[in-house]
């Protein structure tokens, strides 16, 4: 349940890399997330889109067995600073914002200030028809406050970034020997997207929710 909640809120298994505030590079793609743990392997699918104004849409399609119908949709609009979470089955929308600083979404990783991180250049390679530059990120040491215990795992993260699309096409996170997460964009189609994809549909009931993080207005 925690994993599904994180997918629902962040657009991927963890809040990290983002499509937000990238203009002039519209696209749609299918995102495949594979999580391997000691208990087994799980696969999650999503459809992600961005328009020329930088608005983004993330359709959470769940597991392949769930049939491909979105059970939740996240829309981020950096122009207004608003985030909407839609539940199509009940025609319900949760609204949060406006944000002072736009919240992170999928595909932009913000390094924790509690870590030193080393980055190693992995060169370039073609992924789904796009040239991507790779880097490997390794925690170099815990720099948190005295008395605080560092999180478990000292693994690495690989990110393969496409300058042409201004996003990470492939991310491989191995934070411990028993955990691996691969997030991969496939079926990437460039081009302007319909404006209605980035609006709350007519007939939805909208509930405004408080902003969950202090310091944002």
Describe the structure.
A twelve-stranded mixed beta sheet has the order 7-8-9-10-11-1-2-3-4-5-6-12, with helices on one face. It has one helix and twelve strands. Strand 7 (115-127) and strand 8 (130-142) form a beta hairpin. It is globular, with a radius of gyration of 18 Å. It has one helix at residues 2-10, and strands at residues 27-37, 40-50, 56-62, 72-77, 82-87, 92-96, 115-127, 130-142, 156-162, 167-176, 179-190, 205-208. Mean pLDDT is 79; it is low at 1-20 and 109-115. With 217 residues, the protein is mainly beta.
Task: Quickly list its features.
217 residues; mainly beta; outer membrane lipoprotein receptor (LolB), chain A; twelve-stranded mixed sheet; globular; disordered N terminus
């Amino acid at each position: 349940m925690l994993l599904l909640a994180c997918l629902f809120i962040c657009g991927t298994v963890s809040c990290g890399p983002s499509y937000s505030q990238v203009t002039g590079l519209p696209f749609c793609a299918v995102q495949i997330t594979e999580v391997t743990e000691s208990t087994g392997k799980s696969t999650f699918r999503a459809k992600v889109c961005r328009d020329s104004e930088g608005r983004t849409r993330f359709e959470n399609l769940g597991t392949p067995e769930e049939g491909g119908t979105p059970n939740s949709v996240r829309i981020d609009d950096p122009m207004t600073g608003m985030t909407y979470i839609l539940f199509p089955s009940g025609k319900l929308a949760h609204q949060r914002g406006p944000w002072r600083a736009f919240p992170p979404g999928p595909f932009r990783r913000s390094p924790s200030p509690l870590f030193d991180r080393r980055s190693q250049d992995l060169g370039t390679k073609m992924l789904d028809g796009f040239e991507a530059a790779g880097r490997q990120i390794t925690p170099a040491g815990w720099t948190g406050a005295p008395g605080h215990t560092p999180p478990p795992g000292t693994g690495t993260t690989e990110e393969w970034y496409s300058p042409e699309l201004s996003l990470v096409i492939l991310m491989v996170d191995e934070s411990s020997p028993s955990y691996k997460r691969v997030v991969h964009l496939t079926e990437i189609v460039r081009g302007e997207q319909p404006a209605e994809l980035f609006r709350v549909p007519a007939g939805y009931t909208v509930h405004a929710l408080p902003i969950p993080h202090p310091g944002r207005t």
